[in-house]
From TrEMBL:
It comes from Paenibacillus dokdonensis. Residues 35-75 form the DUF1565 domain. The keyword Signal applies. Keywords: Secreted, Signal. Transmembrane segments: none annotated. It is found in: Secreted. InterPro entries: Beta_helix, Choice_anch_Q_dom, DUF1565, PbH1, Pectin_lyas_fold, Pectin_lyase_fold/virulence, Polysaccharide_Lyase_9. Residues 143-361 form the Right handed beta helix domain. This is Right-handed parallel beta-helix repeat-containing protein. The keyword Signal applies.
């Protein structure tokens, strides 16, 4: 798989930083400066003034260098690069910071301040994108918006903040109060948006309503979301979505074949988001760090998700529809309020989670609310999922797994390590709506975890969030060695299979 602007060692196993597309070096170079003029030649000594003039002029293989300064304008990109000549690249020049500022600009429909429509081979690199806001309902400001169909789009090393919808619609649910930091909507079929790279960006201070910080939705096929920092937003961090009708053909309406790795997602909460309840804080605790809602065939590995409402969730909000074939692997998930990992529909009117893998993750003292959702929250209609090689350490609630629904079939739970501050005799598991107190009672009553352990994992320094294992840890070399599911690398990028065996948890 070719992804413009990023070097992948092997998809899923090791990611290098985004580099400038090599083809662009031999193409035409253009320059934009806040002090330029669009009647100039667009050279370094006679730069243009506006980004839009550059977008209307640049062709395949071109690089548009934007000098430091503030550009109070929208950038609409509809032209494409090409496979043989290279992408059209827009980038901040050298070490200078180009800022695209939306202060005072109106929002029409769903609109990006950087808006890429039906384009191929486009790279956006190194911008600060900010202050694109609205107080109107039923319009949606987006920092960078990719939509229609297209391919080989690279969004790298951008800083996106203060994208906000602060409207106050009438009614109780505040529908129409939405915004995104980065959004990729595949809105055509069968033509998809494919081969998308979103790497090294920072997204923060976003007011999102019922929408997401970074989202891939609809007919989006083959993408990587890597090495991004997403924090301090009032709804979901990263979301892979299906079944929302973004594609005109339902057969193509699932984001798929994605790779989500190396991201840090933290301080994501809906508790001060009036879309979840006007009385603030509303204590909804509904925002995921990383969420798959109806997506399929994707890998979520080697991420850090902490201090969010929910660490990672794989679910389907649509009745009769499933999230399927998702791998959650070698992630560090800790100190999230409601739970560490959630799966299945959140009530009986939702869809299912089918054929997913949850392997080699470390979940530490999630359920900080203490309301009993535990480290793993198994919800409605879960089928044929595998949960192995994980470390689960309970919060003060002493709840490790909570599964209140009986519609649960074919799930395999084994080769895990459990620990709780109250010890084995006070730890609880709920499975198919039956609660078990004590590890042996849980094993006997459910037939789960026949090869699992209850023991202190002996982290190096959990108080300082260092969850590497001490040499004497019982998790050392105690995991199931199954290279078909565990992957090649741990969260540090070290070889997963070493010596005598495989560790449980995120760290080898």
């Amino acid at each position: 798989m070719l992804i413009v602007g990023v070097s992948l060692a092997v998809l899923g196993f090791g990611i290098a930083s985004v580099k400038a597309p090599s083809a662009a070096a031999s193409g035409t170079e253009y320059y934009v400066s806040a002090n330029g003029s669009d009647s100039n030649a667009g050279t370094s000594s006679a730069p243009w003034k506006t980004l839009q003039h550059a977008a209307d002029t640049a062709g395949p293989g071109s690089t548009v260098y934007v000098r430091g300064g503030v550009y109070n304008e929208k950038l609409k990109i509809t032209k494409s690069g090409s496979a043989d000549q290279g992408p059209i690249t827009f980038t901040s020049y050298d070490s200078e910071q180009a800022v695209i500022d939306g202060t005072g600009l109106t929002v029409s429909g769903t609109e990006g301040i950087i808006d890429i429509t039906d384009a191929n081979y486009v790279a956006i690199r190194g911008f600060e994108v900010r202050n694109y806001t609205t107080t109107k309902s039923n319009v949606m400001p987006v920092g960078i918006y990719v939509h229609g169909s297209g391919s080989y789009i690279s969004l790298s090393n951008n800083k996106i903040h203060d994208i906000k919808n602060t409207s106050t619609p009438t009614g109780t649910d505040l529908l129409g109060r939405d915004a995104h930091g980065i959004a990729v909507y595949g809105t055509k079929a069968p033509e998809s948006i494919h081969d998308v790279t979103i790497d090294g960006n920072e997204l923060y201070n976003l007011v999102l309503g019922s929408s997401e910080s970074l989202v891939l939705n609809g007919n989006v096929d083959t993408f990587s979301v890597t090495n991004n920092k997403i924090h301090d937003n009032d709804n979901i961090g990263i979301d892979i979505i299906g079944y929302e009708g973004k594609s005109p053909n339902a057969a193509y309406d699932q984001a798929r074949n994605g790779f989500v790795s190396g991201n840090q997602v933290y301080n994501i909460t809906s508790n001060n988001n009036p879309s979840y309840g006007k009385k603030l804080p509303n204590n909804s605790n509904a925002a995921d760090g990383i969420y798959v809602d109806g997506g399929k065939d994707s890998i979520i590995e080697r991420n850090y998700s902490y201090n969010n409402d929910i660490g990672v969730e794989i679910a389907s909000e649509h009745a009769g529809k499933s999230t399927s074939n998702i791998t959650i692997r070698s992630n560090m998930i800790y100190n999230n309020r409601l739970t560490g990992i959630a799966m299945g529909g959140y009530d009986t009117k939702r869809g299912s989670t089918v054929g997913c893998l949850i392997v080699n993750n470390t979940l530490y003292k999630n359920d900080t609310l203490g309301d009993g959702s535990g480290q793993l929250y198994v919800q409605y209609d879960t089928q044929n999922n595998v949960i192995k090689n994980n470390i689960f350490v309970a919060s003060s609630s002493n709840v490790l797994i909570y599964n209140e629904y009986t519609k649960n079939s074919g799930n395999v739970v084994d080769y895990n390590l459990y620990f709780a501050p109250g010890g084995s005799s006070n730890a609880t598991w709920t499975w198919k709506n039956k609660e078990y107190t004590g590890f042996s009672a849980y094993q006997k009553g459910t037939s789960n975890d026949a090869h699992s352990l209850f023991a202190d994992p002996l982290f190096l320094n959990a108080a300082s969030n260092d969850f590497h294992l001490k040499p004497a840890s019982p998790a050392m070399d105690s995991g199931l060695t199954d290279t078909s599911i565990i992957g090649s690398l741990d969260i540090d990028g070290q070889a997963r299979v070493k010596g005598a065996g495989v560790n449980m948890g995120a760290y080898e």
